[in-house]
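Appendix B, example 12.
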Amino acid sequence: MSNRHDPTRKARVREREERRTTLRVLLGRLDRLSAAEAALLLEYVTAELDASDELRRRLIGLEQSSEQIHRRIRAAEDAIVEAEVARDRLAGYLNAVRRELGGEVLWPDVPYAVRRLVADRPQTARAHPEEL
């Protein structure tokens, strides 16, 4: 969209205000209009209608863009929730492993400690819950 201070926008606003002022004068004299004034009135009304239609099209485009952004935000929020659920599930698994190892294992050493535990005590090796 154009900047509010764009000279082209200011010129369009000024032209629109001039048309509206002239429209008010002409509408006030509707019963006394000459052929030239009637033609000018038709031209200005047509320009106002065209400007209104363009504004409406832009508004529809903005609404569609806004809806698309909202859908993307909702999808991102859903993905975050899914990631948090997976994180919590994995944290539960890791905490269970730490408890099994006596809680003395630092987080970076957990994979090594799990392999060592499985090698030392094969009876503790179980299928992953999602593999059952």
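Helices lie at 7-28, 35-100, 110-120. The chain has a mean pLDDT of 81.
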